[in-house]
Amino acid sequence: MSLLERTSWTKTKATLEGNTKEARKTRQADVQPKPCRITNSSHTPMPLDTSSYTLAHLRLDGRRWNELRRCHGQMSTQAAADGSSYLEMGNTKVICTVTGPTESRRAGGLGGAEAKIEVEIGLAGFSGVERKRRGKGDKRTSEMQHTIASAFADTLSTQLYPHSTITINLHILSQDGSLMAACINASTLALIDAGIPMTDYISACTAGSTASYASNDEQADPLLDLNGMEEQELPFCTVATLGTDDKISVLMMETRVQLARLEAMIAVGVDGCKQIRNTLDGIVRQHGNSLLQKTVT
């Protein structure tokens, strides 16, 4: 074999060996799994998909349209008061104390033939989203005080305590919707704890609509027990009933509502008041059982 033939054979052999090595590397790369590259996605967060809430007809806090928030209450929380209670409706928290019946504050202790009911509401500066204090002359606070006093004046047996005063003090620790309803329910528990006779429970809750006042949506649905965010966006009202009947003792409108939607809102509110009454009755019975156990032991 000549020198030229040997040189060409050597180049051909090297080329074949190189192709074989590259083929082996390619097969090994195909067999071995490629490592997964993890990138930091903190700079580009994925948006929250809320389509499931829309399909399931759930609200922002996961409730359905006719569901109440968690309601928790206690009685006899203040030993110095004649009657006291603590109530939570969702994140709305209220402390209520009742003093009386006491001698009337009028000159000479002269009063009417029935006891006078006075309501005082104090809002903590940290209770709302904005850290501010409301004075006694605040319009909304004054309306709430007058409404609560009028509601219980027709329910309590005030004729048994002439020339006297019954004072209801409400302290708002946290506001997250249904404030008026929480005040009424807390007052009911505190008055029962004070032993003042009343015809039946006054239970309250809020009801709203899924469409705003300016919207012409004919398929707007009613909502039960609105939270703070819902009250800022939607029309709502506060409904309070006496006992298990559909007798409405309080109907307070704080927003503009179309008349066509009002009937459905009131119906949902009355149904919610019945559920609240069962909750209040359970709190009273539990407190009574605890007192009986202490007496027996």
From TrEMBL:
MF-aspect GO terms: RNA binding
Disordered: annotated span: 17-50
Annotated Exoribonuclease phosphorolytic domain residues: 67-197
One Pfam family of this chain: RNase_PH
CC annotations in GO: cytoplasmic exosome (RNase complex); nuclear exosome (RNase complex); nucleolus; ribosome
Main location: cytoplasm
Keyword terms, alphabetized: Cytoplasm, Exosome, Ribonucleoprotein, Ribosomal protein
GO biological process, alphabetically ordered: nuclear mRNA surveillance; poly(A)-dependent snoRNA 3'-end processing; rRNA catabolic process; U4 snRNA 3'-end processing
Compositional bias ranges of the Polar residues kind: 38-50
Location in or out of the cell: Cytoplasm; Nucleus, Nucleolus
CDD domains in alphabetical order: RNase_PH_RRP41
Biased composition (Basic and acidic residues): 19-28
InterPro entries: ExoRNase_PH_dom1, ExoRNase_PH_dom2_sf, PNPase/RNase_PH_dom_sf, Ribosomal_Su5_D2-typ_SF, RNase_PH
Family per similarity comment: Belongs to the RNase PH family.
Subunit-level organization: Component of the RNA exosome complex. Specifically part of the catalytically inactive RNA exosome core complex (Exo-9) which may associate with the catalytic subunits RRP6 and DIS3 in cytoplasmic- and nuclear-specific RNA exosome complex forms. Exo-9 is formed by a hexameric base ring of RNase PH domain-containing subunits and a cap ring consisting of CSL4, RRP4 and RRP40.
Name by which UniProt lists this protein: Ribosomal RNA-processing protein 41
Annotated source species: Aureobasidium pullulans
